Amino acid sequence: MEKTFLMVKPDGVQRNLIGKIVERFESKGFQLVGAKLMVVSQDLAKQHYQEHVDKPFFMELVDFITSGPVFAMVWSGEDVVTKARAMMGKTNPLDAAPGTIRGDFGVVMRKNVIHGSDSVDSAAREIGLFFKEEELVEYNKLS
Ligand code: CMP
């Protein structure tokens, strides 16, 4: 089954949004297969955001994601990478539609509450950066 990496960013954790965000993905029918509250190191942040290394806001991104605890998650389900992105809404909360996570809770570009992998390949890379194999669970099949 497809997996994606989602992370409630420091602004979302500080604003007590973890429960509300997890609830949306559970209600949709996706399965949580890994989760942890953690502080991201500078090193991990730089690896996570490596595709943005040449952008002018790269160090801003690193400083923000390391500024407080994040809630890192792995979710499983059919087409979960694309569906989770749709549920998150556009990157800039000001452009994100009402009903999406960023549309409902986001404030500004940098403080956009949640990160989600943008492709199946990115998901595999990001899950590998944040989780060890043994930290992910398997559910028994309901039939
Ligand atoms: P995220 O999904 O974590 O992935 C990269 C992040 O870069 C994105 O969310 C935004 O928070 C941030 N970002 C994208 N574009 C800009 C920008 N023009 N200025 C500042 N931050 C940005």
UniProtKB/TrEMBL annotation:
EC number(s) from the headed UniProt entry: 2.7.4.6
Top-level taxon in the UniProt lineage: Bacteria
Cell compartment(s), UniProt: Cytoplasm
One annotated GO molecular function: metal ion binding
Broad class of the protein's primary localization: cytoplasm
Gene3D superfamilies with a match to the protein in the record: Nucleoside diphosphate kinase-like domain
Active-site residues annotated for this sequence: 115 (pros-phosphohistidine intermediate)
PROSITE patterns in the record: NDPK, NDPK_LIKE
One matching Pfam family: NDK
Residues annotated as domain Nucleoside diphosphate kinase-like: 1-138
GO biological process annotation, one example: GTP biosynthetic process
GO cellular component: cytoplasm
Catalytic activity reported: dZDP + ATP = dZTP + ADP; a 2'-deoxyribonucleoside 5'-diphosphate + ATP = a 2'-deoxyribonucleoside 5'-triphosphate + ADP; a ribonucleoside 5'-diphosphate + ATP = a ribonucleoside 5'-triphosphate + ADP
UniProt keyword Iron, yes or no: no
Positions where Phosphothreonine occurs in the chain: 91
EC top class named in words: transferase
Claim: Mitochondrion is one of the keywords in the record: no
Modified residues (Phosphoserine): 122
Role this protein plays: Major role in the synthesis of nucleoside triphosphates other than ATP. The ATP gamma phosphate is transferred to the NDP beta phosphate via a ping-pong mechanism, using a phosphorylated active-site intermediate.
Family of this protein: Belongs to the NDK family.
HAMAP family: NDP_kinase
Name the record gives this protein: Nucleoside diphosphate kinase
Source organism (scientific name): Niallia taxi
Source taxonomy: Bacteria, Bacillati, Bacillota, Bacilli, Bacillales
